[in-house]
Amino acid sequence: MIGLASLHQRHSQVAAFIPSFGKGGLGRICFSQSIKFRSIPLCQRALIAKLSFAIFAVIHILSPALLLGQSKPLKEVRVPYALGGSTSFFWVAHRSGSFEKHGLKVLPIFMRGGREAVQALISRDVSMLQQGSSGVILAWAQGAKDLAVIGATGNKLDYVFVSSSAIKKPADLKGKRVAISQLGASTDFIARLAVRQLGLTEKDVALIALGAQGERWAALAGGHVDASVFQPPITVRARKAGLPVWVDFSKTDYEYVVAGPVTTRSFIKTDRETVMNFMRGLADGMDFYRDEKNKDAVIKYLGEFYKSNNTEELEETRRVYSQVSPGLPVVTVKSMENMIASDKLLSTMNINGADVMDLSFLRQLEEERKNKK
Fold first, then answer.
1. What burial class does residue 204 get, using C-beta atoms within 10 Å of its C-beta: 0-12 exposed, 13-18 middle, 19+ buried?
2. CA-CA distances (angstroms) from residue 215 to 4, 118, 169, 179, 212?
3. Which of 8, 148, 199, 291 is the S-S candidate for 358 at Cβ 3.0 to 4.6 Å?
4. Taking the mean position of all CA atoms in its chain, how far away is CA 80?
């Protein structure tokens, strides 16, 4: 890139080539509008004119480079996120430089559960988040109408409900401890849904908030809880351990907003282009994730995300999410309606799922992709 100082230096170097008009020579003439042409011979005036034209031509040629050298700095955007299979798309987009391509410097902030992240968004400590949407809908229903779900990196349930080997039938879960990440988080909603599908009620089990799925797995493997819900790559461990899988949502094609980008309508109003650039970067990151030529890089980034060097588990994660997630961060009204209907509290609050969403960014993204083809 060429800055102002560099351009000035080149201007001086070009000006230095102007011959001097002095005794025994052409003499000294200042390169400015104060040149007195009437005191200079005609042949010398022609030479000055040619040199002047050459200098201005050089400046004209260098101007685009100068403008590029003064391009805007990256805009910093702090984004809370939680560990989870579909959220790994966001991490890969961050690590692969996909957001930078669209002028954003994303600063990921790990938060264990969605409730804390939603509070940070409502209080405007952050302007966007990448989290499960169940807590967002609950906050919206309770008065935080500024919240807006704008996409999803997971639009179908990908969890499995797993128990210890001591559980031989669903009825054995009565009175047992079921680990979730945090009350009000997606795992809370999904665990309740799984329990109901097994013919039990939520009161039949004790929901214990233990954090991310690595911690929940350690608790289940150590006998401290009796069941939990997991996504890849923990599903590989459960399968290897021979633990019973009572509900496998990934096989049901059940539309549900597992995780995705959320912002506020006030931020959209004041800085819509930043939100759009975030969606562009996220979509590019999802493409990077699925592209086979990037497999090694994606495995490396997933290892950072999960703090794991278990190649088998990381490859399983990449394989599963490359298949189940669409080409764009798509969220559907149906997935939002299913989330509301499946929750005991939300289903009584007369919520219209479409009211919580802003699909204009997805529509613009789809249009931009279509025009590129």
1. middle
2. 55, 22, 25, 9, 6
3. 148
4. 10
